[in-house]
Amino acid sequence: MWDPYAEFERHVLPNGLTVYVAEAPSKGFEIFRFIIHSGSEADPAERPGMAHFVEHLANKNAPLPTIELRDFFIDLGGRAYLGGTSWNGTSYGFTLPVDIRSCARGLELFGSMLLTARLEKGVEEERRVILEEWKEDYVVKEVTWDPISRRRQALYPGHPLHSFVCPLGTPESILAITHQELQTHYDRWYTPANMTIVALGGLAPSTLVSLVIESVFGTGKPGVRRPVPVPFDAPKPVDTGFVLRLNPHVPGFQNMRYVSAAATTIPTNPAAMEVAWELLSQELFDEIREKRQWTYDVSPVWEPLGSSVEFRVHCENANLSAEHDFDGCVTMCIERCATQTARFEKVRRRRIAAKQMIDPNHHQIVNECGESLAHYHSVRTLGDKIANLESLSMPEVQGVLERLAPERRFTVLMRP
Questions:
Q1: What confidence tens digit (pLDDT) does each residue in 50-80 have?
Q2: Which of 111, 148, 297, 355 has an alpha carbon within 20 to 30 A of 140's alpha carbon?
């Protein structure tokens, strides 16, 4: 079995920087991903959106203007990814041809951007950009922002997630964040010890690591790695949801929207979440789409949020006639999954077989490594995932499903 994730070598430099590197000898490119192990989770309580604001400013204060920075990579046939922020981390990246001088220059540009920048340029311009971004994403606040805000308040009492809706923060916070606060956040978290580089391409690992050491990334800067989050055992929610009746002229709401979410603990065996998701996907499809024909699409989603995993059942467009029965039907589907031992075994074996046949491209490999490092601070190999599936038991999956009981969910139903 080909396991590209097992081919990565892990190196820790004297300054604390971690490098995961693998070689693809026949390839003419090198892909770099840079993970800062501090995302929205590191935002000060009174300043949501800080990490995202810093991400916007990093490339504005790079050695080259943003357009010239992008053009350096594009002119060589590569690309630059100038930043993205999630709850778990902040990431950047670039791709260049396998040419030592070009890769060295790319590392110098990104090293200066991510380790030694003074965030002096573009603060007010980016403040306006972020405010416009917020207005665009949450144009109808009662439909887009408020339900998520109330859900997080209900599911995560006493936890930083209690006030988290999205990495953008709130308009009030975006306006209040100062230049000094931005620089302080950058200086604290943009350090080698709190950073991981993932690299895959035609360069030999020893050559790649030497390039990193000789670049800005090899220099010293005080800092510590943000700790791996302690699992949060969420209590039953303080509120179980609401029905939102909307003006019938609100775009996109001629039918019903349904979202039901639970804060689940991180299972000891990560495969339990994966198999619970597939069992519930099949059950919801069979019962709600095929049998009852209430909607074209109803699906579960699980989102790693550091110390917790939020598990949601989502339906964007359901028949209004199902308003009083939809949530009860979802509960019935969840309960059925907990009794389907034969289907559990079938799903478990199917997922083992699928993992033995994956064929990701090199960008997908690097992106998945980056996500794994942001979420779990490690690279999970296919061998690890298959071993987890092989050892998985039905009681472990039932443990996940028990956290989706109706008294543990926060449910929002929106209708005209």
A1: 999 999 999 999 999 999 999 999 999 999 9
A2: 297
